[in-house]
Amino acid sequence: MPTEMLQIVNEEGKSDSKLDPDLPQSELHKLYRTMVYTRAFDNRMIAMQRQGRMSFYAPCVGEEAAHIGSAYALKPEDWLFPQYREQGAMILRGISLEQLVSSLLGNRNDANKGRSFANAWGDRSLNIVHSSAPVGTQIPLAVGAAMAAKLRGDKTVTLAYFGDGATSSGYFHVALNFASVFKAPTIFFCKNNQYAVSVPIHRQLASKNVAVKAAAYGMEGVQVDGNDILAVYCVTKEAEERARSGGGPTLIEAITYRMGAHSTADDPTRYRRQEEVESWKKKDPIKRFRLYLENRGLWGEKEESDLWTEAENMVSEAVRRAEAAPLPTVESMFEDVYKEMSPALKEQLQDALTSRESR
Amino acid sequence: MSVLTIVQAINKALTEEMGKDDSIVLLGEDIGVNGGVFRATEGLYQSFGPNRVIDTPLAESGIIGVAMGMSLYGLKPVAEIQFLDFIYPAFDLIVNELAKFRYRTGGQYPTHIVIRAPCGGGIKGGMYHSQSSESYFIHTAGLKVVMPSNPYDAKGLLVASIRDADPVIFLEPKRLYRSVKGEVPEGSYTVPIGNASVVAKGEDVSVFTYGAMVHVALEAAKKADEKGISVEVIDLRTLSPLDFEAIVDSVRKTGRAVVVHEAPRTLGFGAEISALISEKAFLHLEAPVTRVTGYDTPFHYSLEEVYLPSVGKVLNAIEKTAGF
Ligand SMILES: Cc1ncc(C[n+]2csc(CCOP(=O)(O)OP(=O)(O)O)c2C)c(N)n1
What we know:
- The structure holds two protein chains of two kinds.
- Chain A is of the alpha/beta class.
- Chain A is built from 14 helices and seven strands.
- Chain A has helices at residues 25-50, 64-72, 87-93, 97-105, 138-152, 170-181, 201-204, 213-217, 229-244, 274-281, 285-295, 301-324, 330-334, 343-358; strands spanning 79-81, 158-163, 186-192, 195-196, 199-200, 220-225, 250-255.
- The mean pLDDT of chain A is 96.
- By secondary structure, chain B is an alpha/beta fold.
- Chain B has two domains: 2-184, Rossmann fold (3-Layer(aba) Sandwich), CATH 3.40.50; 197-322, 3-Layer(aba) Sandwich (Rossmann fold), CATH 3.40.50.
- Chain B is built from twelve helices and 14 strands.
- In chain B, helix 8 links the parallel strand 10 (205-209) and strand 11 (231-235).
- The A-B interface holds A 55-56, 105-107, 114-118, 120, 132-136, 165-166, 168-171, 196-199, 203-205, 265-266, 270-271, 327-328, 330, 333-334, 337, 342, 344-345, 348, 351-352, 355-356, 358-359 and B 29-30, 33-35, 37, 55-59, 61-62, 85-86, 88-89, 123-129, 265-266, 295-298, 300-303, 306-307, 310, 312-313, 316.
- The structure holds thiamine diphosphate.
- Thiamine diphosphate (TPP) sits between chains A (85, 133-135, 162-166, 193, 195-197, 258, 262) and B (29, 58, 60, 82, 86, 89).
């Protein structure tokens, strides 16, 4: 049973030396860079939506440590099943910024052919299964992929990301049960950001926390400070080792906070107090990791401003290229419904082409 | 009388009915403190409190299952599904339980919950915020299915749905929520379930449609009129039970029919209407019944304008039908 939340780096950026994983400097820098890129990306996408250049966006501000630290603990051959608010994990794994923007715009350069709205990122070559808006559906899929890897004798681990709201969905419970019955090499990674749109965590569950639910399904459950990237890395690493060595699934609850709105369509002042938001700003995961690096003499003002300039330039460049791409072709709308276009779809494609001309 | 949007008219219907009947309770995600993501339940939490305006955990199966249980016990729940696209976790309960309860208990346990859900495209919401899946529900015996196209009908039909004895799937075309305004009387009135409405009178071609497409059809009818084709537009309003007399009457007069809906073509409601016309008015037909519908693809995000029936597409169909 989880007793307390694991924290390694406190809000002042001081780490517990007994627990610090002692990652090499280059790796620490890689993690920090990814966090800053993610924040720069979020800032720009929110601004673009406000300017009417994008219909909708769901930022991950405040949750960077939770998803970047956990994705970092896995190997490239491990499969990710994202929810939608894991921009940093996408960037860390290697989806280009331009792809992320192209997908949001639904343009012709989007590898997913412009069909999906907002944050529906994924990439088969990177073992990221595209996220989908219906809450919770990805969770059992991660279990199935893990069961298949086990059947095949592969050492692949799968990880499903989901929010606290998703723990109320049937899919969560079904998935945990299957995973523990079949000892699937899966990690259930709950980013408890305290809200599901406007609904606070205490309206999602009446148990002590999310992690305790693991006990009922016969698996390990742990709580971690989701704004402490090193702690997130360590608990995920442990879960990954357990899964890979045949020890079955783990439920991780990362305690974090959705610092921004649920999405650009949401106004959080309707349901939460500004003081609460301010108190979490002090726990900002990027600020904390920067203090940690500074305390260890691994970072300074110059590095900081250079990195931000670089990240913002890279995002601008990605936006420039993505916005230059045209919309997908009308033909492409009818592709991939089936492997081969059905007779009805062929006829409808002709109709769409002629109607477009007559419009 | 005041000029309201559809979302305000829905809010009015809920407020007035809840004020009169304390067995009415609302359940849904974000409907309480937040007033609903589209603000349909704005202010209701403040007026009626957390016991009657219930912010639920994120589980549509829970919302519908619990609403049904409440109904069995005598309450009148109105459940909001945040987007129709997210109703499927509750599909088993709706199709296997809600729709069949009265029947399989020999009438002992009728359930009469109302399920409100924003539906349809036109807001750049992609495939999970735009679906028009009314056919699944129309196809299920025991459910009533309603879709208003204007504020007056929205209020009157919602009041009628809440007072109805059967389960009602109340579909709200979200792109009309704020874009269509109209006069709505204060106080209660109903628009009867099961009655279509002639929203434009005409002689040459009948257009049968509902929801957001009513406005596209009216626009096309205006353009057709300029070209000398007189078009009758019928807003079906209730999809189940269907007012087939209104359909047959109109076809008897015009002899030509176009059906417009944004749901996919195959087994969309147009198929049913077309079959009904050929069964009940075959000898009056002067031209084949034509459908203008969404395509048999998932709802496309960035090509939504290509996907949806447009004024141009409807006008084209009207002209073809008229000139057959
Ligand atoms: C099945 C389903 N119901 C409702 C929604 C609408 N919706 C989108 S996100 C969301 C809240 C999700 O909360 P949580 O799982 O905690 O994740 P977070 O957004 O906080 O990251 C809701 C209700 C949805 N996408 N899917």
